[in-house]
């Protein structure tokens, strides 16, 4: 607060007198009942009650403040001493609160499992072979058999003269050609189609391996069979005995016997005829 230097002497007197009265009052209030204040006069002691005195003291102090403000106080907040000016700067501190919002993003990964089922289709091709099943129409050893009288399905798969030798290799080739389930062995003269001696049987029976056993036969379909691809191959009627050395040399029921050497020899017998050569034929038929 600053004081104006152009205030009138009267104003200054009033203020000064009131200040003086307050100072006095603080002393006189202990001896006077009340101090009466007047703008132009000094306070005078009067006897009043204590409440009245307190009221007047407050009123006088308030009046001093009012008069002081009216006559001497500037309405600025600058205090001037000679030419010096003090400026009071109020700094307003602004606090900025930054709120950080943390956003958590939850990513849900869905794993899709694709199951691929591979169906393997296997195509089975069934080859159907139509075969004519031929029963063994003839049982036992046959004499003077016309091959044209054989049932349908039978066919010639081998023929050669008795002078042609047979080895194990030849036998293998012959059996590759005569590869069906039923076989018929026979023999005849070169210029005669009629088979002098013949017999038929299932393949396994006709090829029953007796090796080099001289008396071995395997009886099936009324025929005694024997076979070896390195000794001899032939048959007898029923349960007749044989004497293989290497071919069968027995003479009982000789006309019902047939034997071929299979140890690189030609010959040997067609019925009762032995030591046959190029004038006689060995034949094989086969059928399923």
Note the run of SSEs as H and E: HEEHEEEEHEEHEEEEEEE
General shape: rod-shaped
Main β sheet profile: 6 strands, antiparallel
Count of runs of 4 or more consecutive helical residues: 4
What does this structure look like?
This protein has 288 residues and is an alpha+beta fold. 20% of the residues lie in helices and 25% in strands. It has helices spanning 9-28, 50-72, 168-177, 203-206; strands at residues 34-38, 41-46, 80-81, 84-85, 142-145, 155-161, 182-189, 195-202, 218-220, 223-226, 232-237, 258-261, 268-270, 273-274, 280-287. Helix 1 packs antiparallel against helix 2.
Brief synopsis:
Helix content is 20%, strand content 25%.
Secondary-structure topology with pairs:
Elements: H1 9-28, E1 34-38, E2 41-46, H2 50-72, E3 80-81, E4 84-85, E5 142-145, E6 155-161, H3 168-177, E7 182-189, E8 195-202, H4 203-206, E9 218-220, E10 223-226, E11 232-237, E12 258-261, E13 268-270, E14 273-274, E15 280-287
Helix pairs in contact: 1-2
